[in-house]
Amino acid sequence: MKINFYIISIYFFKKIIFLLLISTILFEFYVDGNQCYSCSGLCHNEKCNCQMGSCESDYCYIERRPVDVPGVFRITKGCVKRPSRTQAGCDYDTLPDHIYCVCSGNFCNEAVHIKQILRKNVTCKKCNEKDPNCDNVCVGHWCHEDSLTGASGCGYGPPTLPYFYKGPHLLFHRNRVCLTIARGPLAKPRKHCICNSNMCNDFMKTYQLTYSYNSQNVKSKIQNGQVSRSLFNNLPLYQCVLCDVTSHDSKMTSNCKQNRCIGNFCTYGIHRVISHDGNSLHGTIQRITERQGCINVTDHSQIQLGCNDKYTSVEQKISCACTSDLCNIDVATANTTTLKYYYSYFSIILLIIVYLIK
């Protein structure tokens, strides 16, 4: 009997490829946990540090921010799941005196080690409010503006917008990205824009350039007093919970959860802070702020679906974006968007492999 080694080799090659793809997909679901430092404190010099507590997560973080007292910094260490930063290491966090680091490894968040990255500088308009006579400028890595308040200025480090991945790809294919956020039934929607060319955040110029385009292409839908606008009509729209509530009880419900808004993505955010209270039965008190709403975007390619979870022993911040009606009702529902995406991806790959093996 003659053995066809070519057919046998092709068969085993397909099996190996199959196993590699399966292991790659499973790795997306499971990342071995790391021990991270978890602490916070004030520092009076550049080399300040803290190493008191610990937590476990896929990634660790450390950040350093100035406080109101000149020359004093607050350093915070903790854990983060599904970080929005696309590149590991330390970098500026929007402002030149804010540094944020992400790493993977046991107690890798020991200290801040920032490396200078060569970036193109741009000149931006810098104003605290919408003032046509403001002629202040600054030099940074990218520019930003807020259409509601008119505030504008310079950004440093990777380009940053809420609910987007923070990395160079955000402004790689286009030089301007905008996002409109609706949070709470009483708050007006706010439009945030970032860009990376000289004086691109001059709101008077950008208003004149975009008014004629937007007046013909903007879609508006009104739901419970909220106006939702999308600059591109090909993105689907979803109905989302619109609520903003602060309480000391995690089980508390609010009537504002009946409010709705319509947008390209639904959003969910929660901020928990535990503080000491001598009058409390347990000696501590928990303050919870929960925000649900919707966003509309000019570019959806860098939206981070699912939930980003950043926490220490006394504080937790969760931020989610999802794409189905009322998916932001709670954190569990908002986070299933990512699982559905990976399940669909896995199914497509599996079907292709089965077809090739036949």
Task: Indicate the topology.
Elements: H1 5-29, E1 34-43, E2 53-57, E3 59-66, E4 73-81, E5 89-93, E6 95-103, E7 122-125, E8 137-140, E9 142-146, E10 152-155, E11 176-183, E12 190-195, H2 203-217, E13 219-223, E14 226-230, E15 238-241, E16 243-247, E17 260-263, E18 265-276, E19 284-297, E20 306-311, E21 315-322, H3 331-357
Antiparallel strand pairs: 1-2, 1-4, 3-4, 3-6, 4-20, 5-6, 7-8, 9-10, 9-12, 11-12, 11-19, 13-14, 15-17, 16-19, 18-19, 18-21, 20-21
Keywords: Membrane, Receptor, Transmembrane, Transmembrane helix
Transmembrane segments: 12-31, 341-357
Protein name: TGF-beta receptor/activin receptor, type I/II domain-containing protein
Characteristics:
CD59; alpha+beta; 358 residues; 39% strand; 21 strands; 3 helices
Described by strand count, sense and barrel closure, the largest sheet is: 15 strands, antiparallel
Domains (count): 3
Strand content: 35-45%
SSE pattern: HEEEEEEEEEEEEHEEEEEEEEEH
Q: Would you identify the CATH architecture of the largest domain? A: Ribbon
Strand tally: 21
Query: Per CATH, what is the topology of the largest domain?
Result: CD59
Give the class-level CATH name of the largest domain.
Mainly Beta
Organism: Strongyloides ratti
Protein name: TGF-beta receptor/activin receptor, type I/II domain-containing protein
Keywords: Membrane, Receptor, Transmembrane, Transmembrane helix
Transmembrane segments: 12-31, 341-357
